Each structure stands twice: as structure tokens, then as C-alpha cells.
Amino acid sequence: MSNASPDRDGGARERLQRWLPKLVLSPSCVLVLFFVYGFIAWTSYISFSDSGMMPDYTWVGLHQWSRLWTSWTWGIALHNIWVFGLLYIVSCIVLGLILAILLDQRIRAEGVLRTIYLYPMALSFIVTGTAWQWFLNPGLGLEKTMHDLGWQSFSFNWLIDSNMAIYTVVIAAVWQATGFVMAMFLAGLRGIDGEMIKAAQIDGAPAWKIYARIIIPQLRPVFLSAVVVLAHLAIKSFDLIVAMTGGGPGNATAVPATFMYSYAFSRNEMGIAAASAVFMLAVIAALIIPYLYSELREPRS
Amino acid sequence: MSAASPAARRGAATRAVLYAILLVFAVIYLMPLYVMLTTSFKTLEEIHQGNMLALPGEWTLAPWREAWGSACIGLECNGVHGYFFNSIKIVVPAVLISGLLGAFNGYVLTKWKFRGHKVVFGLILFSCFIPFQIILLPMARVLGLLHLANSTGGLVLVHIVYGIGFTTLFFRNFYASFPDELVRAAQLDGAGFFTIFFRILLPASVPIIVVTIIWQFTNVWNDFLFGVSFASGDSAPITVALNNLVNSSTGVKAYNVNMAAAMVAAVPTLIVYILAGKYFLRGLMSGSVKG
Questions:
Q1: Could you tell me the sign of the dihedral formed by the alpha carbons of A153, A159, A160, A165, in that order?
Q2: What angle do CA A232, A233, A236 make, to 5 degrees?
Q3: Among A117, A137, A297, B268, fewest CB within 10 Å belongs to which?
Q4: Residue range A209-259, pLDDT digits in tens
Q5: Is residue A241 part of a domain?
Q6: Residue B52: which residues within 8 A CB-CB, separation 6 or more?
Q7: Which residues pair with A49 in a beta bridge?
Q8: Could you tell me which residues are beta bridge partners of residue B73?
Q9: If 0-12 CB within 10 Å is exposed, 13-18 middle and 19+ buried, where does residue A89 land?
Q10: Taking the complete model, does pTM exceed 0.80, yes or no?
Q11: Which domain holds residue A77?
């Protein structure tokens, strides 16, 4: 009799201990389920509804999607994101790899240089955009500076040229992210097994050949990570474009993210805005889910 | 004897070229910051007449004073200082709460595994990568229903919710390599769930706490999309105020004031980066390289 009650107490406490971990995890799960997956479901539904300024749950099938796909601005946005994304990813990877290889030659001031290459990553895109907008300003910026230095024929007015403005955004974006890609490659280079390299050196292979045949092929996982991270950053890019060009001149630098924002909050076309957002999510999901899946499986082996 | 061998000379020349290239890149990388900083100390007159790359002929603090206290943003001419404090009001609770939730999640997902723990982690992790356009419309409505629209409180909620993914990732990866034996030994000694967390894991977590705080601080401080979507007017964060100042000012553009305002927005994250760059990099890397 006397030990029955402590027993029951112990049982209750044990049950609590068993449930406690899940109890502690549950607030986050509820938040994520509601604010991420619930919202995705809602926005997806809206893209098939008749919503304009206010949500209207009347099902209209693919109506909004066909309006999206026939929209002139959306066409420009898609074209821009291709151009921007491709140039951005390729430039960041090429420059980042070159910088990483150069920095990996037992450079004396490596720490300082690395800090300099990476600092733009700590800045807000709005700050970066403001700085580059000023730097590339045709009247007072780089162009005038070159004229002052005696190069009268120098001309750089891409920022206000609707055919070229998107490339100014590429320049600023590459400037901001290259240091990060460099850091990824540098970490990869430091992780390479030195034995094969030593063997090749003993065989008298020139340095460029060692890089081309042995080292760079071993960096394949870093290339994959860099492409996935950069592609997902490119699709999400919004701040930099707003700060540098505001999507202009005209619609010249519109991208899906700015398109969605303007249809959602200034044009009051919820249905089209939702469809464009679902499209962005689908592209990113197609990219990220296989990547996360392979990353999460690996530790087991 | 005195002349170096051709091979050694070629080696020295190669290294000189190497350093030269690295230095040129360093100059290119520092250029925008340099121009931003020097422009912010110039008078408007000097900007229009002088060279962008030249140091200020006559240093002036007036642009900084105007950016901080009297520049016009929208209809109000009080500078960016109010928005700077808005950002602080948003950052501090958002970082602390999302960090705490992430720490608990990481602890449960590694030391108290249950059936389906990987699926739960995957679902939380995916939220780091979604394009936030997908949640803008419903979030605007929900914040309205909660009476949190156009308030810093609303932005705190938004940043907590969408910060959980990264904080959970950081702590989960960190605790995954924390020895299970220590946890089991403590359990045998009768230590409960919270005792183990606060007595054993948390004291060993200082590095990952620093990484998480720096990452979340930088992300939330630099956020623009949530700020511009959910907070207008008085409750806007500094990034939104900066953009409004730079891109909607009418009349003569005061580039020096714009640059000073941009520096005000940049200084907090720059300081954190300079003081703790190592941890900043670690956050970046674990956000990308290894899940």
C-alpha cells in the first residue's frame, strides 16, 4: 500500500517525460504547418479563384493562369530571370573558383583578403543597391569619373538603358555573392586529400593540369551546392532590383518577384499574383527538394 | 652565386602577379563601400563638381546629421533614426524567440528521436527555402485579422515564423554531433528533459548560439520584402525607410544624405561581421553546404 502512490507518481512523470519532447516541438510544428503549408495551400487555391482586390473563393479553373501567361510583363519577367540567373550563377562560380584557387596558394594576408571579399554578403541588398545606383549613375558616377580622368569617350549608361539595365543588376549581385561562393570553394579545396596531388607533383605534372584533372573534379559537390544556393537566391531576388532600378526603366528589369509584388499590392490582382507566386514556388521546389533529400540521406552511410 | 636561378625568379614573378591580381580584386570589392563612405562626408557642391573617387576636400558631418534627424521620408522629415529603432525593436525579440525555438527543436530532433523525426525536420527545413511571395497574400490578411498590420509586432511574428527553419537547422546539426552517451548517462542519473538541456547541452552550445544570433540578426536586419509588404509608415524598418528616401525623393537628389543613410543601415551588420566574421561564415556555410 505504502509504495502504490509513489509508483503512480512515477508513472505519471514518466508519461510526461515521454510526451515532453513532442510537446516542446509542437509549437514550432503548428506555426510551420499553418504559416508555411497552410499558406501555400491557400495561395494555391487563390490562383484558381476569381480573386481580385479581395479574396473570392469562386473556382475559375485556369483563368488566372492563362491571364498570367498572356501577360506581357510576365514574359519580360521570365526572360529577365533567365538572363539574370544564368549570368549570375556562372559569373559567381567562375569568379569564386578563381579567387578560391588564388587564395589557396599560401597567401600571406589570406585572412584580410577573405574578409574583404566576403563583406558585401553582410550588407542589405537595399544598401548595396543604393551604393551601386550611385556608383553607376551616368551623370555623376563612374562615367563622369572616367571623363575627369581624361577618357572622354567612356560611356556607361546601362542603368537607364532599358536593354542593358538588367546587366547592372547582375554586376551588383555578382559583386555581393562572389565572396560567399569563394568561401564555399575554399572550404572544398581545404578538404581535398593531398596524396593524389603529391603523386602528380612528383610525376612532374604542371599546376594547371593538377587543377584541371584532379582538384576541380573533386569539387563536384561544391559546384552542386553553389548552383542550388545561387539559383534559389536568383529566383528570390527582389530587394536589389527594387533598390537599383525599381523594375525599370519601364518594365525592363521586372522579375517574377517584383511582378508578384506589384500585382499583389498595387494592382490588386490577387489571382494573378497568387499564380505567379505558385510558379516561383514550383521552380524552387523542383530545385531544392531533391537537393535536401540527398543532403539529408548522406550522413547515414 | 648572387643571381637567383631562372626557376626561382619565375616563381617570384608568378607570386608577384598572384598578389597583384588578389589586390586588384580587393580594390574592386572595397570600391562601392569607399565611394559610399566618402560621398557621405562631402558637400553636395563637391559631389557635382569633384571626382567620385577623390577624398572629401572639406569633410562635413552635415549629411549624417540630416540623414539621422531631418531627411524627409514620405511626408515626415525626421530622418531615419525612428526607423533604425524600429529595426532594433523587431530584431531583438525575433532573434531571441526564433533562436530559443530552434534550440529546443534541434535538441528534440537529435536526442529524443521519434518515428517520423526526419519528415518533421524536412518539413521545417523546406520553409527556409520557399520564395516568400507564396505567403505574402495570406500573411497580410492574417496580420490584419490579428490587428498586427503595420506594426513592428507583426514583423516580429513574421520573422519568428520564417526564422525557425534556419535556427532549427543550425541547432540540429550541432547537436547531432553531441555525444549521445552523455545524454544517456544523465538520464540514468535521473535527469529529466529540461535538466539535460539546460545543464548539459546548453553550456556546450555557445558557438552555435553565436552563429544563430549573428545569422538571424543579419537576416532580420537586412530584410526588405516583409518590411515593405507588412509595415508602412511609422512602423517600417530601416531598409524600407532607406529605399523610400533614395527612390522617391523629389527635387534635387541629395546623394550625400542618401549615402549617409545607407551607411546607417549598413553599420550594425558590418560591425557584427568585422567582430565575428568567423561565425558569420559558419552560418552561411551550414545554410548551404551540409544539411
A1: positive
A2: 90
A3: A297
A4: 888 888 888 898 889 889 988 998 899 889 999 998 888 788 889 999 999
A5: yes
A6: A135, A140, A141, A142, A144, A145, B35, B39
A7: A59
A8: B76
A9: buried
A10: yes
A11: 72-300
- pLDDT over threshold 50, residue B162: yes
Q: What's the domain range around B15?
A: 6-69
Record: contact B122-A296, CB cut-off 8 A:
yes
Show which of residues 146-185 on chain B sit within 8 Å of chain A, judged by CB atoms: 160-162, 164-165, 168, 176
Nearest-by-Cβ selection for B164 from A17, A31, A180: A31
Q: Which of B45-54, B237-246, B248-257 has the lowest mean pLDDT?
A: B248-257
| 8 Å CB contact between B98 and B163 | yes
| CATH number, domain containing residue A289 | 1.10.3720.10
Q: Which of A231, A218, A197 is nearest to A84 (CA)?
A: A231
Q: Which of A 104-133 lie inside 8 A of B, CB atoms?
A: 105, 107, 113, 115-128, 130-133
Torsion angle, CA of B68/B71/B74/B77, rounded to 10 degrees? 90
| Distance from the A55 Cα atom to the nearest Cα atom in chain B, whole angstroms | 10
pLDDT band at A191, cuts 50/70/90?
confident
Burial classification of residue B157, based on how many CB atoms lie within 10 Å of its CB (0-12 exposed, 13-18 middle, 19 or more buried): buried
Rounded to whole angstroms, how far apart are CA atoms B186 and B193? 10
**Where does residue B253 fall: left (phi above 0), alpha (psi -120 to 50 degrees), or beta otherwise?**
beta
Residues of A in contact with B273 (CB under 8 A): 118-119, 122
Mapping DSSP to helix (H, G, I), strand (E, B) and coil, where does residue A59 land?
strand
* 3-state secondary structure at position B73: strand
Amino acid at B187: Q
How many domains does chain B fold into? 2
On whether residue B291 sits in a domain, the answer given is no
Q: Provide the CA A225 distance to its chain's centre, in angstroms.
A: 11
State how far the Cα of B10 lies from the Cα of B23, in Å rounded to an integer: 20
Is residue B177, in this structure, part of any structural domain at all? yes
Residue B75 lies in a domain: no
Q: A281 vs chain B: nearest CA distance in angstroms? A: 6
- What does the alpha-carbon distance between residue B86 and residue B83 come to, in Å, rounded to a whole number? 5
- Please report, for residues A205, B11, B79, B284, the alpha-carbon distance to residue B280 in angstroms, rounded to integers and kept in the order given: 38, 35, 30, 6
| Nearby residues of B12 by Cβ (< 8 Å), 6 or more positions away | B4
Q: How confident is the model at residue A17 (pLDDT cuts 50, 70, 90)?
A: confident
